Amino acid sequence: MSALDDAGLRTAHMVASVLLGYPDERLYEARPLLSRSVETLPFGEVRARLAAFLRHVAATPRRELEAHYVATFDLKRRCCPYLTYYTYGDTRRRGAALLRFRHAVRAAGFDLSGEELPDHLAVVCELSARGATGPAMRLLREHRAGLAVLTRALREEGSPYADVVAAVQATLPPARPWEQEAALRLAAEGPPAEEVGLEPYAIAGGDR
């Protein structure tokens, strides 16, 4: 099980939520705070992986990091940061799954800004960082197979973002055998497909 207490989980998820967003001014202004926050975490995989990505940010020109983010998360479906995609793909059932994330976000008093979907990994991490750690952890555990597939895809792409997603994975309790089997099956078969266009998104966004 993760060695982090509740405060450590919130800190780790806060850092991950910023790092998993688009690398705009918010990230660069927050770098000193993020580094100090990581230094408060106990030594272990979570701290090491988040620190490694922050070193990458420090050593990489901003335009290069921006281009990599877009090329990785926006242009490669296999590196999708939306957790329900791995379980439901673009099927009708994804709409109901997205509503569950939205309800968890709203129950915590967290108002989504812009057009971001509530199952984006950065949003779920921010939910935890804002104090709703229990609901966020439940959502992460339920979609840990997707997290595992995303981490694997990022590693195969040679993306440093693999460290951030792996750090989030490391905040979860050890996977049980059936969860490991689900991750292997998902990696082999991929998300389900259905010819429904953007209907799941319309269902999820109807109450914005």
UniProtKB/TrEMBL annotation:
GO biological process terms held by the UniProt record: chaperone-mediated protein complex assembly; nitrate assimilation
Example of a GO MF term: unfolded protein binding
Keywords attached to this entry: Nitrate assimilation
Protein name: Nitrate reductase delta subunit
Species assigned in the record: Streptosporangium sandarakinum
Keyword Acetylation on entry: no
